[in-house]
Amino acid sequence: xxYLLAALPVLFLLTTCKEDTYEGKYINGAIEYKITYIENxxxxxxxxxxxxxxxxxxxxxxxxxxxxxxxxxxxLKSHTNFxxxxxxxxxxxxxxxxxxxxxxxxxxxxxxxxxxxxxxxTDDIKEIAGLECKRAIVSLPEKGExxxxxxxxxxxxxxxxxxxxxxxxDGVLLDFQxxxxxxxxKFTAEKFIPSxxxxxxxxxxxxxxxxxxxEQMTYIIKRLME
Length: 226
Known about the structure:
Elements: H1 2-19, E1 29-40, E2 53-58, E3 62-69, E4 74-81, E5 86-93, E6 96-101, E7 118-128, E8 131-140, E9 145-152, E10 172-180, E11 183-194, E12 210-211, H2 214-225
Parallel strand pairs: 6-12
Antiparallel strand pairs: 1-2, 1-11, 2-3, 3-4, 4-5, 5-6, 7-8, 8-9, 9-10, 10-11
């Protein structure tokens, strides 16, 4: 027993060090993505009003994705806690503010989830926004679609895709596709901004937002686009 008690402090130190050790080069920063549209089913809205950028701000255990468009009248922001594998999504339309709180393991609102997704990993390497990326081939059998995506392991985030459809990939996405309502969007990283400071290491739900279900928030976004 005395040997076990003597070993406990050492074991504690080892597990603590493991928790704070990251394999990637970067643990804090931001990525700016260009948005292009593969499909656009909107007929009444000019393409010039659609979102053109997305920004990802990250720390080892938290991230924030922000998309703005429609001349600043629309903002969709998702906050993810990678340790808990939970996410909440906020939607701001003019002066109205909505909040969707996801359960553990539930995807962020309001992109298609593609449960039939199959991923083939390759050894192909490509540089995007100054980061080394690996190529994977994505297949969506129900839709009859196949496309390439790229992800990097140079950024240290735990379970980086735990709240998006690409949860099979253990790496930060730098070139990928998602569908939001009537829009199929491609996100391509243009700029990577490393940081020494952990400025978003928080996971606080905003106050004064109306809480809605996933279905309600999706409906609101679709009505905005019609």
